[in-house]
Amino acid sequence: MGLTVGFLLFDDLTQLDFTGPLQVLNRLPDAEIALIAKSEGPVRTDCGPFILPNHTLETAPDLDLLCVPGGYGVDAVMQDAAMLDFVRRQAAQAQYVTSVCTGAFILGAAGLLRGVRATTHWRYHDHLKAFGAIPVKDRVVHDGRIITGGGVTAGIDFALSLVREIAGEDHASAVQLSLEYDPAPPLQAGRPELASAQVRDAVESRMGPRLEAFKTVLESLDLPNG
Fold first, then answer.
1. Which end of the chain is more exposed for a tag (fewer CB within 10 A), N or C?
2. pLDDT at 226 over 50
3. pLDDT tens by residue, 203-224
4. pTM for the complete prediction?
């Protein structure tokens, strides 16, 4: 019997944080996928389309693998006792507890990153310390059964690394080939150290208000190192 893989869904999640890993993890042998939200209604992503969950927090099965995406909606989830209790409950018995991008902060708010090596989106990376985590600037970070991926597209890399661990290198390679995942970006600006100062400044300016709102939420939480 395959693994039960669950994704925690919430309004304003980053669509690719969710669908990138979903596309890969769905190809685990006999995987059962659970899309879990607080209620039965559709969940809004950051780019418009809605996702329809097939489970609520109450009806979700016990998960072998929990995956938490990121996005602007992380702020609300970090303050939602029911959502955090669900994450803790599932994490207590899951084989793998994972996140993509700023989804790491939901794990952190649930108390799951204390003393754990972890990564997240580059712009938020230093804030992992507020949750007692040990920030590591890698695209994918494994620390025991907790696995975190960097920003957005890193979710595909994270998922392939997990498929390799669970199902073996040949199966993971077959998944990669079937998806024709062979990144060759037309621009060399995918990491801060590669981008020009002008590009970095533009991104910093665009993300500034969002980051300030995130920091305000952090200040309101009871954090181990806050």
1. N
2. no
3. 999 999 999 999 999 999 988 6
4. 0.96
Catalytic residues: 101
Query: Identity (one letter) of the amino acid at 133?
Result: A
CA gap 144, 106 in Å, rounded: 18
Neighbours of 33 (CB within 10 A): 17
Q: Tokens 């890698």 sit at which residue?
A: 138
DSSP string, the chain: ---EEEEE--TTB-HHHHHHHHHHHTTSTT-EEEEEESSSS-EEBTTS-EE--SEETTTPPPPSEEEE--STTHHHHTT-HHHHHHHHHHHTT-SEEEEEGGGHHHHHHTT--TT-EE---GGGGGGGGGGT-EE--SSEEEETTEEEE-STTHHHHHHHHHHHHHH-HHHHHHHHHHTT-----SSS-SSTTTS-HHHHHHHHHHHHHHHHHHHHHHHHS--TT-
Residue listed under structure tokens 């959502």: 83
Q: Which of 201, 225, 181, 214 is nearest to 101 (CA)?
A: 214
Scanning the structure block, which residue is given the tokens 């939200």? 37
| 7 and 35 Cβ atoms separated by less than 8 Å | yes
Averaged confidence pLDDT in the chain: 96
> Are the beta carbons of 138 and 128 closer than 8 angstroms?
no
